[in-house]
């Protein structure tokens, strides 16, 4: 790698020199030498690169071998640790068995000593029993005295309880009296509520009657409006038909006055049409007016429908 770096440095120097040589036109000879050196250096670089690749492959293979050996060593170490554990466990078991033996021997000695000490204690207990019986007799005398005191306390407590029972009975009587008063109050309030309910029911009945009257009036008003609108509609339609008829009659008279029979025949001969067809052509203008009147009729119908919708709504 160091050789590679040195060669790269030399190459850079040579390139720099070749650039300077290209700039200066006076010295053409050394530039060729530099080119040759450059090629040699490039060849060396390629060789060094190939050597580096070979060495890297060998390093990789060695690393893989190392890993395999390390894995093998770990397995052997694990086996060794297991065997070492087994050995230590066996040693511990042997030591435990020896300690158990020693403990059993010591237990036998201690049991013999305890038997002797128990015999001594039995003798001491027999002596203690005598002393304890004497002390118990003294305690009995004290307990009898305390019992008499407690009996007196019991009688006093009984008297106090009887007094409290009398107070409780008085309180219970008072409670019953208050409950009776509460029942009377409830009955009075319920009666008042019933009276109020009756009054409200009467007021509701009067209101319902008024509502019925108002609804009757509303229905009368609706019928009046419906009849009025129908009559208006009919009268408007009659007026429109009359106006239309009057207009038609006036125009027909004007046409008859203005046009003579000879003029009509002349016009028919020019247009190659019969006189009846000519009358129809002349009446086409009147059709527009009839369409307008029809539009007016449709608007009147829409107005009627609008009023009916308003009446049906609340």
From TrEMBL:
GO terms for biological process: centriole-centriole cohesion. InterPro entries: CNTLN. Residues 1-17 have a biased composition (Basic and acidic residues). Residues 1-35 are annotated as: Disordered. GO terms for cellular component: centriole; centrosome. PANTHER family: CENTLEIN (PTHR18957:SF0). This is CNTLN protein. It comes from Menura novaehollandiae (superb lyrebird). The gene is Cntln_0.
């Amino acid at each position: 790698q160091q050789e590679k770096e040195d060669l790269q440095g030399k190459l850079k120097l040579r390139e720099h020199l070749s650039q300077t040589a290209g700039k200066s036109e006076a010295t053409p000879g050394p530039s060729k030498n530099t080119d040759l050196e450059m090629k040699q250096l490039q060849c060396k670089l390629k060789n060094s690169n190939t050597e580096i690749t070979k060495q890297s492959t060998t390093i990789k293979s060695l690393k893989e071998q190392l890993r395999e050996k390390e894995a093998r060593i770990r397995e052997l170490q694990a086996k060794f640790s297991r065997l070492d554990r087994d050995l230590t466990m066996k040693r511990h078991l042997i030591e435990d068995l020896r300690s158990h033996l020693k403990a059993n021997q010591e237990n036998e000695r201690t049991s013999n000593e305890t038997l002797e000490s128990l015999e001594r204690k039995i003798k001491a207990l027999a002596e203690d029993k005598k002393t304890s019986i004497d002390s118990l007799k003294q305690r009995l005398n004290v307990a009898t005295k305390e019992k008499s005191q407690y009996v007196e306390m019991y009688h006093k407590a009984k008297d106090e309880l009887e007094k409290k029972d009398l107070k409780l009975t008085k309180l219970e009587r008072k409670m019953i009296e208050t409950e009776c008063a509460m029942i009377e109050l409830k009955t009075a309030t319920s009666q008042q509520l019933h009276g109020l309910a009756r009054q409200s029911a009467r007021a509701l009945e009067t209101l319902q009657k008024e509502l019925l009257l108002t609804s009757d009036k509303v229905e009368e008003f609706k019928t009046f409006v419906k009849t009025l609108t129908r009559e208006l509609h009919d009268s408007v339609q009659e007026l429109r038909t009359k106006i239309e008829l009057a207009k038609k009659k006036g125009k027909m008279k004007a046409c008859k006055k203005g046009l003579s029979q000879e003029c009509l025949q002349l016009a028919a001969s020019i247009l190659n049409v019969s006189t009846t067809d000519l009358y129809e052509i002349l009446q086409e203008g009147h059709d527009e007016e009839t369409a307008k009147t029809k539009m007016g009729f449709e608007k009147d119908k829409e107005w009627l429908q609008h009023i009916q919708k308003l009446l049906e709504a609340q």
